[in-house]
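Bit of a strange request maybe. I'm writing a small parser for structure token strings and I need a real example to test against, not something I typed by hand. Could someone generate the tokens for this chain?
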Amino acid sequence: MFFKMLKSDLKRKRGLNVILFIFISVASILVFAGSVQIFSNFTRERSAKELCRTSDTQFWIMEDDFRDDAIRSKLQDILDSEENITGWSTSPMTRISETAIEYPNCDLNENRYMYMMKIQALITMPLEHDLVYDLNDEPFYVPNGCIAIPIEVQSTVGVRVGDKVKYTACTGEVYELEVCCIFKDNMDNGIVRYIVSDADYKVLSDSSNRSYISYNLQTNDDSDNWLSNFKDKLFDQDIPILSVTYSRGLNDDIVLMEIISVLVVLISVFLILIIFMTIRFTIIADLKAEEKEIGMMKALGVDSFSFRWLFAAKYIAFAILGGIVGIIAGLPAAGAFVNMFGPDCILPERWEMILIGVLSVLVIIIVMIAFSLFVMGRIKKISVIDAIHGENRGERFSKRFPMFLHRRKKMSVPFFVALTDILMRFKRYIFLLISYSLGAVIILLGFNTRNSVINTRYTQYWLYHGYDFSLTLSDEMEDEINDECKKTGMIYTEVINQRLSEAGIPAHIDTMYAGEGYMKNDDKNKYFDIFWKKGEPEKVTYRKGGSAPRLANEAAMSAYTAAKLGIDVGDVIKLTINEKNEDKTGYVENEREIVITALVDFMEDGDPIIIMGDEYDNGYTWWSTFTGFVIDAPESEKPAVIAQMKELFGGDNVRTGLQAMRKQVARFDTLFKLFEFVIGGAVVLVLMLITYLYMSIFVAEEVPETALLKSLGFRNISIKAWYLLRMIILLAVSIALGELYLWTGGSLLFGSFMTQYEVTGMKLYFEFPVSFIVIPLIITAAVLFTAIINLRSIKNIGIWKISEE
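Reply from user aminoacidic:
Good idea to test on real output. This should exercise your parser:
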């Protein structure tokens, strides 16, 4: 009986059945791929630690110093005696210019700019720590005359295995190397590594004054406290280290990759919700069509639970078959998802992917079957009387919506009928409203997340008060400015600002001095980066209720840590700061009482900040931090100023702030575009399929009403106007709800998600024409086009159909 019912269901409404089966199959694939994606995100760090043996801390010394037996022996003793260090190794590394490697069909200046924020390094194959794998997660070998390129470079410059690249050594000699492998690199410390053979490394790095030995450390504790003490120990031993870094630092790649991964999961959830609501609607429509048959079977004494299995036959079959499709197609899709949204991520073991994916699909199959049976509960409400009389059980009265056509003389009849139909039978359209609003949210979310993250306003969370331009200087100009700094005693940005001023260009770069400090918290030291510089604190954007610190004993604190420590505006804290000693040659630790006058939203990621008052000027400067790239001109004149700067520094070295951000995250911008156009297009297609499904059922159910209107003299165009106006009203409400969901719940969700990076106050930024005009018009056009196609059958409905009423 089950299979007879299934065969009967499949013969009827074949178009709707195809749509429903596609929906369920897509849901299964998304669940498989999405679950593997989530699992991969959770286990990424563990996999990198186990398979790549990533180091927690690295520091470098010059290769010439490494050859000194005394220095090398002293270093080994320190590393072997440090209890916190669980393992360490050394590896050669040569810093190279961003333009040292020339790719086919790729502009050198473009390539240099894209990676200006990272150190470019030539290395040999890692053997102990920070291991690398090819795109199939397998070890690889680099022969002589070849070079291995990291995937982050490959995705930007488009180089492929087998291509020839040109390497320009520091001596000016040019070598041709063949790309033998594209690899994944899970060492996250701001270094882009290019791998060559040991023999080639000796030739390519010969005579370089940027050749180092990198010490790679694995530790139990990589906190700022330990790192600071470890640096002090090395300095006390007069070991000439050049840099100490750690791999847990935050960068744009990690942030954007995780944002995109969350978007994938949210889209999967939204689509599954839409599918469930579609199943519910089709089941209810089927039950209504089969009401008399169901009532007759109940009259014969058949148990209603048995009906559920029979009438749910199609949905059970679709859930099982769709689940099988999801499992078969989900495995390659999962691998593609993980590699797409985390190019350097090592895939989970194949058996883990299959197990996670199959379990997830089984869950969705069970949930779909249970949901279908639950909706079938409406069978209980169908009585034997329905089998005999159908809906005509005598005169029925219900309260009508208090709106009358004769009182709405300026309202057209189709609009009046559409509006009263929605208001009187609102429950009928609830799930369609939800489906359309969720679809609108998905499309809006993809666009507005990209618009919010790749936006100059985003830089305020890095403490920038303006990002009108970006400056990237050539190596020659960098050396020239550094020489001038040594001669004049000015800092780097002061030299640039002086050149801008001498050229009459109204632009400047702002910086703040940076030092270190800490406060006691539960018998532990909580370390802060301390910023100060006269004239700069008032330029920072503070949270509402605070004011810029002015006096030397006033300060602002990053909001995330302040909330964690229970500190608010007006509180007084005791802060120990590294300050200049009496002869200004070093620093001493001084404890100060500081009044917190404001809180600032800042992306901390383990490094909270304190901004000292405008009058403070006693801190010991460890480094400087950029706080603004500002053009002092009206918005309309800024393009002309950019043109002047291009003439001064070179056309390829100056860009607008937005251009700079897009270049810095170019490969992720491509993925955001994928969401905007591919995912957005897919959602529009889903909305069109839903419209086709609902409109087909509406037209079939409303044959008597349509026939009645025709008998009253209404033309086909007026009846179609009724249907279309009803859809327009539903769409308008749905899109308004979608906008409301996004700008309330969406912003809250985005802000909550970003707190994992220890930042507060982040929200979505909208672009008015696209968010509120273009996208709503696209959705409306797609839905109405589908509805118009569906309404062609109206002309075949004759007046005699009124007898069915």
